[in-house]
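CATEGORY: protein folding

GOAL: derive C-alpha cells
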Amino acid sequence: MSVLRLAPVSLLALMVAAPAVAQTDVKTEVRTEVKTQADDGAVPEIVVTMQKREQKLLNVPAAVTGFNASFMNDVGITDFAELSLFVPGFEVQDQSPNNPGFVMRGITSDSGAATGEARVSVFQDGVSISRSRGAYVELFDLDRVEVAKGPQSTLFGRGALIGAVNVIQAKAKPVLDARAAVSVGDYDYRMVDAMVNVPLTETLAVRLSGRTKHRDGYTENLLGGENFNGLGTDALRFTASWHPTDTLHFDLITNYQKDSTPGTGFKSGTFNPTNPQTGAVIGDLSPTSGAALANPSGFKNRDLGLERTVTGTTLLGEWRLSGDYRLSSITAYRRFSASEVFDADGMSLPVLAVAEDARGKQWSQELRLNYDAGGAVSWFAGLGYFKEEAETRVPMQIDERVAGLFLTNNLPRPTPLSLPMIAAAAPTAFGPLAPYINSAHRESSANYGETESIDAYADVTWRVTPKLELSAGVRYTQDDKVSGYSASVETPSVLAAASSLTPVITANVQAQVTQLVTQYVMANGTMPPQSQINAWTAAVTPVVVQAVVAGMPPVGIFKQPTPGNGNRIDQSFSDDGVTFRLVGRYAFSETVNAYASVARGRQPKVLSGDSGATPLAAPKFTYADAETVDSAEIGLKTRLMGGRLSWDTAVYGYKYENFQTQVSTSTGGLITVSAGEADAYGLETQAYYRVTPGADLFLTYAYSHARFGNGLYEGNRFRLNPDHSLSLGGRFKFATQNTRFWFTPTYTWQSEVVFSDDNDLPQHQPAVPNLRPVADTKPDETQKAYGLLNLRLGFAPLNAPWSVEIFADNVTDEAYIKDAGNTGDNLGIATFIAGEPRIVGVTLRFNY
C-alpha cells in the first residue's frame, strides 16, 4: 500500500471522532517536556518518550542521555559533533554536513552508498532521517534531544541496530514569544538564531524559527581562493499546532536547510604542497598546515565544496480515545539533494578529482495505539510503512599524464614534478600514444537503492509488584529492495589500455612497413635504405595509432562501463527479520532503580554493485548477509542527596554476527562485505551534581572495548572508537545587586582512535597494480589521545531582555585530526582532515 493511501487513513482515524471545538484554557494545554525543581535545589529532571510514553529518565530501563534546550545553550551545543562530546559512548565525526559519521558504542554508521543501511539512526520527532547524506541537520529551537544506546530496533525500528538519536523540535505554543541571538568570532564566524511564536486563536498557534551559520575555512588554501573546512548553513523551520479539542491535537512541522560550504581540506601526507606550474614547495606534510588543493578546470563547472538542500514535512497527530487509550500518527515526507566536489588525492597536481552527487526521497507512515489504565499491564502496538528511493553518483576526472606517472610509481616523492615538466615528458613517457593521453579523462559510477518496507511491532510492560517491572517487545520487518549499479566512460582512456594497445600497434606498424618494403624489393630488386624504412615507419605509425585508438571500447581507469556505456543494471531481493527486547527494572526506592536487559538488533542484508573486469561487461553484485547483534546490559539509575545528584551507570556486552564493513575493490570502489564476527563490551557513566542552586557540575565517562573476532580483520579495533572518553564541566551562575553572571567551562578528552577497520596495517594495504603502486606501510592514520577545553562567560542586567556571552572553543589551540585515509587511501596516499583550531567570539541574546 502506498503512503499516499495510508496518510488519509491515518488522518481520518484521528479526525472522525473530533467534536466541535471546545472553548478551553489553552495555556493549560502547553506540553512541557522538561521538568525542573530549581526551587528545592534539585538538578533538572528530563522527561523522555523513548518507550513511546512520557517517563522520567530515572525510570527508563536503558542507557539514555537527555539534554534540554537550556543545557545545550549553556554549553554551546549547535550540532551533532558538539552534542556527542557530552554523551558517553557516542561519537560524531563531521567531515562536512554531507559526510558525517555517527558512532555508538564503537559501531560506525557513515556509508554514503544508496544501497547501505544505517546502524545508528537519527530521528526528528520519531521520523527516521538516517540516510547519511541527509542526516546531519542543525540543532536549533529544540525541546530536547534523546540519545538511546544499545539495540533499539524494537522501539525505533529502521536502522537502530546499536542506538538512536531522537531530536524533539520545539512546537508552536499558545503564547506570544520571540527571541534572537547573534554570534561573531574568529575566521569571520557569524551565526544568527531567531524564533517567533504567535497564537492565532485559542486552539491554533504557529512558530517560525531559523538559523544562519557561516565561518571561513581554517585550513589555508596555499593556491589562493577560499580556505578549506569552513561552514555555510541556512536553516528554517515552520510549525503549526492545532488543538481542536481536549483530546485531539496536531503538529505540522516543515524544515528547510541549505548548505554551501568551501572544500574539505583533504591534505596529502605523502606529497608536499607545491606550485603546480613551477614545482616550488609551498608547504609541508603536516596534516594541520595549509593545503594545495584545486578543482581541475571544467570539472562539474564549480569550485571545491558542498551544495546541499534538505527538506522535510511531518504531521504528528494524537487522539486520546479515552483515559486508557491513545492513538498516534506520524506522517512524513523528506528529500535531500547534495553535490560535493573534492580533491581526492590531496596534492596540488590534478591526479584525481572526485564529486559525489547524492539524492534521496522517502515517505513514511506510522500508526501506534497505546494502552495504560494505571494498572499492572500497559502496552503499545503499531504498524509502519517506509518507502525510499536513493541514488549516489560518483563522477571522476583524471589527468592521465600525471596519473600515468603516479600509477607506474614514476612520480617523485615527496616533491612531485610540475605540470609543465610532466607535459614536456609525455611524448617520451607515452611514445606514439602521447597525443591521445587525456588531461581531463572522465568516468562515473552510480549506485541506486529502492526500499519498500512494512513493519509491525508490540511492546508490553507488566508491573509485577510496586517495585518490579518487566517489559518485552518484538518487531517484525519485511523489506522489498532493489540495488542498482551503472558506470560510464566519457572518452576511452588510452592510459588504461596502453598495455594492451602497444602490442597491437607495434604488430600493425610492422605489418604495413613490411608490405612497403616488399613492394620496394619487387619493384627495384634491392632492399630500401634504412632511412626509407624509418620514414615509412614514422608515416605509418600515426595512422595506425589513430585507427587502433578509434576502435577502442570505452575503457576506464578505475571503472569499466556497464552495457550501453552507462545502462543501469538492477537486482531485486527481499529481506525480513525479527528483533526483540526483554527488560527488567527493579525500584529499590523512589530514587534508585536497577535494570537488566537482553536485546537483538539487526541490519538488513546489503547488495553492492561494482564494475565488471572489462568494458561493457555486466556489473558484479556482492551480498553481505544480514548483520545481527545480541546484547546484554545491566544498569543503575539514581537521584541522591535530595535530588541534588543524578548518577547513571551501565555495563554492556555485544556479540555480532556477519559484521558488515566496506572494503576497496580492485577498481577503486567500495563494497559492503561481511567481516565475520565481532565483540564489544564496555561501561558508561554520567553524573550531574548541584553543589548549590547556582553551581552545577557534570561528568561523563565511557570505556568501549570493541574488536573484530574471526574473519577479515581479526583482532582489529573498530574505527572511530576510542577505548576511553571523558567529559566534565560546570554551570556556575551568580548575581550582584544589578547584574547576573554565568560561567561554563567544559573539558572533553578521548584516547587514541583509528580511522579505518583495517587499522592502517600493512597487510591490508599491499601494492595493487594499476591502483596502488606502492604498498602503504606507514602507520600514520591514527589520532593520539587529546583533549579540548571550552569556556563561556556571560552577563546581563537583572530583569533585562538581553545578555552578552563570550566564548572560546579549543582554548589551548590543540592540534588534532578528525579523519585520515579517505579516498586517497585506496591509492596508497592517505589524506588527512585537520580539526578545528581555537575560535573566540561573542554572542548577544535578546528575549521578548
Remarks:
- The CA atoms of residues 695 and 732 lie 4 Å apart.
- The mean pLDDT is 89.
- The chain has three domains: 34-169, 177-399+440-492+558-847, 414-436+493-552.
